[in-house]
Structure formats: structure tokens, C-alpha cells
Amino acid sequence: MAHVVVLCTAACGAGAEAPPKSPEPPVEITSAHGVAPPAPVIYQELGSIDEGAVERVFRVLENKTEACHEQGRDRIDYLAGDAKVFLRIDANGKVTSSYFEESTLGDREVEKCILNVFGASSWPKPQGGEAEVRHSFGWGPGDERKPTPWWPEKVTSALAGAPSVRKAINLCKAGIVGSFHVTAYVVPDVGNADEAVHASVGRRGKRGMQGTRGKSTTKTTAQPTAGSGRFQALGIGASTKQAAERVDCIVDALQGLGLPSPGSYPAKVSFTL
Known about the structure:
four-stranded mixed beta sheet, 26% helix, disordered N terminus, globular, alpha+beta, 20% strand, single chain, 273 residues
């Protein structure tokens, strides 16, 4: 910190100038142990963080985030997409808030698993205040057949005819600033939960329907009209921290929405709320 010292002179007597003084030696500030104290640090809203050290942490965590993705692929063969995560890191190197600003993965459980990995890890300690970090990553499709791409109008039209779902969404969004970009997988609902998700477990078979920690976003209890479609899984990117706090509410509100049938194979769709 730069110290600014203002020196003032005053007249002596009636208009006489004070005689010049001999220069004084500089004052050396020391502590009780005779060592100069460290320069003060000004804490502000955002500090600085070692970007190289942050990238090294992300590389160390790649195996854990990959495990999250693999757990998702146990349930959804064709799970793929890109994401950008936001982290706020305090002076102790701990994550105080985290969320997906962008995500086309389409599975909330994978997103939550990844956030848990980042939140449980130690990060470089910022200087001068908390730091904000953004990191982009993703997974491309494998050898599996990709889901059929859907236009967002298929979902917005279904929402127009579902007042109870719209009401639930509006309650989730009440009083917040921000938007939600939803990516979801749609499967045919033929009145049998196992058949409805059968197309998603070709690579790993029945094992793909088990072994995932936490509450799955794939709900088999929703019963839209027979022969229609339903969401198999949803993932969401939020534009603000405030909106991110309502993501799970939005996912729950959308689960019961009846959709057009995607046909004989699952579809993937993105839309904004």
C-alpha cells in the first residue's frame, strides 16, 4: 500500500520564514521482535487467485468428475454435452457457492455429483478477497446412437397445455432474477417404466439402471398419457446464483409434464425458462 504524507509549512512571526531544519533520518517501523511487519492487505469483494494452480486442481479432479459422468452413463447410454461451472472460493481455499452457468449434459444427478466433487476439494487461497472461477469441460458422444434432436417448441407447446406445471414453475421462479436453460432427454411412455427407459441401457444392460448415489432425476412414477413422451432426465444451467438455488425446484416441476412421443428412440431437447 502506498502511504501519502502531506507536509505543510507555516510562517514564523510576522512574515518571517522558519529556518531550514536538518533532514531527519527515516523512521523504520519494527515489531516487538525487531522485524518489519508485513505489508497490509486490503480485502475487497473479489481478490486474485493463481490461475495456474487452479487449473492444476481441475486436472487432479478429472478422474472424479469422469466417475460422475460414468455413473450417469450407467443410466443413460448417450449422456454427453458441454458445461461451464462457476465457483466462488473464500480466503481459506474453500468453495462457498457453485453452480452450472451452462450445461447441455441433460442430467441433474451428474451435475450435482460434479459440484460435490468441486465443493469437497481444497483450492488455492485467493489474495485480497474471495475469488470467482469459471471452468468449461464436457464429454462427446460415444459409439451409441445419438438421441433424436428436438425443437424446443415441442416442450413449450406442451407447457402451454399444462397449467399445473406452469404454476409450479412460476412458484419456483418467484422473486428471483435469472433464467434457466434446460437440456433434457425424452423417452416414449408406453405405460411400463422399464420399457420406457429400455432404449437408454443398451451399452450396459440392466446394470445401467442401478448403482447411482443420490436421488435420480429419472422418475418412473410419472404417468403422462399412454403413448406419449416424458422426460427421462433433465439438467439445467442457471444465469445467476439466485436462479441456481431454484434449479432442483424447476427439475421437480417439469418431471410430470406430458410430452409428444419421440417415436421409437429417445430425443434430446434444450429450452429456456
